[in-house]
Write a structure and sequence with these properties.
Distance between the termini of chain A: 86 Å
Oligomer: heterodimer
Shape of chain A: globular
Distance between the termini of chain B: 55 Å
Helix content of chain B: 10-25%
Strand content of chain A: 25-35%
Shape of chain B: elongated
Number of helices of chain B: 3
Order of helices and strands of chain B: EHEEEEHHEEEE
Chain lengths: 601, 162
């Protein structure tokens, strides 16, 4: 066909992008008017006008889909989870799935357990009134005395849910063979497969023994014989396990059996309060396949806890479990994937460390910040000087971490400040920290990727407690002033909201705000005040001293370091900016409703 | 600058073709029937096939019918096109309603079909049969046609032409 015979439309090359139904209709009508084949296109009642409507509308819809498709194939503009998930796979990014509740286990033993070093096998579980909590790692400890003893355990994290064995998969011997654990649980079901709860065993053809294979961030970083796999939550919500090719990572051989164990969480119904595990007993996981595997993964020297030992072990949880966490959303993936990509699986800059730790330890770490040695001395140690310590290194937390983790020289140290996800604040009063084994685990993992000259030291942040506190001019700054300070809510006399409901709403505002605080944040007290004032029926808020009756026409707070409450206490009414190593919490937040007075006016 | 070319001949002038073709208005037939001529297979001549068209008064009457049988919102790109005659089906039949129906018809037809002039519009409320009998008398000045009459009935079946 010779296009020279065609008449011309003088349209820009990209004119189609601006076409919508109305424009196209006008163009068609204009074109028909030019050639006069039909005449009635100009009249809305004509058949051809209706026909043009349909054509233009169809074009409009098709252009919409074309735009959507084009948009969804581009990382910066894609918005659907499935597309984002696939796009970031090109960067090697692995989106996070749902995470189950965690609880910190403390363990003690009575005199019935002899002095020895023991190992409580993985998958052991505690059934707390029908809510199972399971350890996915072995717990080792040493009983050092003959009497009752609180045990120092290397791993204290229990995951909520039951251990499930996926159907055995037989390898077909392909390079980079992928086993897909199909998620058959409906999206509306409260139960879910907990991410980061997988344990993979492979029965080797070579010696007919079970071996545990470890997860790796990328098979391309592994050697030919490395028993490693890559795990990825794919766009369909299934977990993919990819094995190597005997060049980068060991491959699966024909007929080799793969056994995947994972935690099936009960969802939000599995969350428990402090002390719930106290009256419970530990149970050993004893499926036939796991017992078979056990004989290969533990050596004969290991003294495994047996059923008879269990009656001498007493678990407890001093704090409530962490809440379940939703899977990464498309928006979060878009934010996190470039950060992970820029690290290139190496830890060099502060943001590299922060991204790596946030991504890989989000089940135990709520917030993380990284300080160089210069920042450490000029900010962190300076803080102790500022509050009056002559020798900051003798602060118990600083000393503890220096002794455990710091090398002989400090100039090349990278200081990692972490806030634990579970039991961040004990009894809503006392700050808590990552335990030594968790810190060591973090350091060990970081050591594999860090710059050779860097030395990682885990440090504990400075916690700042907040409460209502009103200081009258001339009074000595003292945390005890909080005991006589109350938040007064002036309620509109015409409103129907009752006091309990109002107090509950205010409590929620504080809980929500402080649960999202990160290290180094600015505590936006104005935002809290605005949120309270936005509650229907609240006219204004004041702060009142019950002992003097003095009232301030705003919300007054006292901020202090609970470990040095005599030396570090401040009274504020405006936003409070934390240093990068500081973390804020509201002191005795559940008691907050007792600190609120509702008055009608 | 891109060039989109269509295989259509450009006419010399609309007025010329109107005169030459012998019609002023041309629309496609509602049923999209192909138009063909009696052309024997033996010595078959080459000819242009197209959809069957309707011309002049036929196309205008068809347009009026479209207006009467379309409710606002039904036309994809012009939701204000059509007359909301269904609204009258949920009211009791009465003379006063017949008056308002007539007003609606008059305003709707004159605004949506500028090619016609309404000479007379009779709306009779037939209370016994629960229907309105409608007679529309119209002229088409551009075609010099007078005295066209369209009769219809509005009842529970909708608007039907008789």
């Amino acid at each position: 066909m010779n296009i020279n015979n065609f008449t011309e439309f003088n349209l820009p090359k990209d004119a189609y992008t601006a076409f919508e139904a109305e424009t196209l209709k006008n163009l068609i009508i204009a074109r028909l008017n030019e050639n006069q084949v039909f005449r009635d296109q100009n009249f809305e009642g004509s058949n051809i006008n209706a026909f043009i409507d349909i054509v233009a509308y169809m074009y409009h819809v098709l252009i919409f889909y074309l735009n959507s498709t084009s948009t969804e194939s581009n990382f910066t503009t894609a918005s659907l989870y499935e597309n984002i998930n696939r796009l970031v796979s090109l960067l090697g990014y692995k989106p996070l799935g749902k995470q189950t509740s965690l609880v910190a286990l403390s363990l003690s033993a009575d005199s019935g357990l002899a002095q020895n070093t023991y190992l409580l096998p993985r998958f052991s579980f505690i059934n707390a009134n029908g809510i199972p909590y399971t350890t996915i790692k072995d717990i080792s400890f040493e009983k050092t005395t003959t009497g009752t003893e609180t045990l120092y355990i290397n791993n204290n994290t229990l995951m909520q849910g039951n251990i499930i064995e996926a159907p055995t998969y037989a390898g077909v011997g392909e390079n980079f063979e992928t086993y897909i654990l199909v998620n058959t649980i409906g999206v509306n079901n409260a139960n879910f497969i907990a991410d980061n709860s997988f344990t993979v065993f492979v029965l080797s053809n070579a010696d007919n023994k079970w071996y545990e294979w470890q997860e790796t961030s990328s098979l391309y970083l592994e050697t030919a014989n490395a028993r490693k796999y890559e795990k990825r939550l794919n766009e369909n919500g299934n977990y993919e396990f990819k094995f190597g090719n005997d060049v980068t990572g060991k491959s699966l051989k024909v007929g080799e059996q793969v056994k995947v164990f994972y935690i099936l969480s009960d969802g939000a119904t599995g969350e428990i309060g402090a002390g719930v595990l106290k009256t419970q007993k530990i149970n050993l996981y004893s499926s036939a396949s796991f017992i078979d595997i056990t004989q290969y993964i533990y050596d004969n020297q290991t003294r495994l806890i047996t059923g008879t030992d269990l009656v001498h072990l007493f678990p407890n949880n001093n704090s409530k479990s962490s809440p379940i966490t939703d899977a990464e959303t498309a928006e979060q993936i878009k934010q996190n994937a470039p950060k992970m990509f820029t690290t290139q699986d190496r830890l060099v800059t502060q943001s590299d460390y922060k991204s790596f730790i946030t991504k890989n330890y989000n089940n135990i770490i709520k917030s993380v910040n990284i300080l160089s040695n210069e920042e450490f001395t000029s900010k962190y140690l300076a803080y102790f000087y500022k509050i009056g310590l002559n020798r900051p290194n003798e602060d118990c937390r600083v000393l503890f971490n220096q002794v455990f983790f710091a090398p002989s020289t400090n100039f090349n140290s990278v200081y990692v400040f972490t806030v634990p996800k579970i039991s961040t604040i004990l009894n809503e009063r006392t700050p808590n920290y990552l335990n030594a084994s968790q810190k060591q685990l973090l350091i060990n993992e970081c050591n594999l990727k860090k710059d050779i000259t860097q030395s990682i030291v885990c440090m504990d942040p400075i916690y700042k407690a907040f409460s209502f506190g009103l200081q009258i001019i001339g009074e000595v700054e003292s945390v005890s002033l909080k005991d006589n300070t109350y938040l007064v809510i002036k309620r509109d006399i015409n409103t129907r909201i009752n006091s309990a409901s109002l107090k509950g709403q205010i409590l929620n505002i504080f809980k929500t705000y402080f649960s999202n605080i990160q290290l180094g944040d600015t505590v936006n007290l104005n935002e809290i005040t605005n949120d309270i004032l936005n509650i229907v029926g609240v006219k204004r808020v004041t702060t009142r001293r019950s002992d003097t009756g003095y009232e301030s026409p705003q919300i007054n707070y006292v901020v202090w370091n609970p470990l040095y409450e005599q030396d570090d206490v401040t009274f504020i009414t405006q936003n409070y900016t934390l240093d990068s190593f500081m973390y804020a919490y509201f002191y005795e937040i559940s008691n907050l409703t007792n600190k609120i007075i509702i008055e009608d006016e | 600058m891109a060039a989109i070319k269509l295989n259509v001949k450009r006419p010399v002038s609309p007025l010329d073709t109107t005169v030459n073709d012998g019609y002023l208005y041309k629309d496609i037939g509602f049923d999209l029937i192909p138009h063909f001529t009696d052309n024997p297979q033996l010595h078959k001549k080459s000819e242009k096939n197209d959809l069957k068209s309707i011309y002049d008064a036929g196309s205008i009457i068809n347009s009026v019918k479209n207006i009467l049988t379309t409710s606002p919102g039904e036309k994809l790109l012009n939701p204000r096109f059509g007359l909301d005659l269904r609204g009258y089906l949920f009211e009791t039949i009465s003379e006063s309603r017949a008056f308002f129906l007539g007003t609606d018809l008059y305003e709707g037809l004159t605004s949506l079909e500028p090619r016609i002039v309404l000479d007379q519009l009779d709306v009779l409320a037939n209370i016994d049969d629960l229907q309105y009998n409608i007679t529309i008398s119209l002229s088409i000045p551009s075609l010099n046609i007078q005295g066209l009459s369209l009769k219809g009935v509005l009842n529970t079946d909708g608007y039907t032409f008789v």
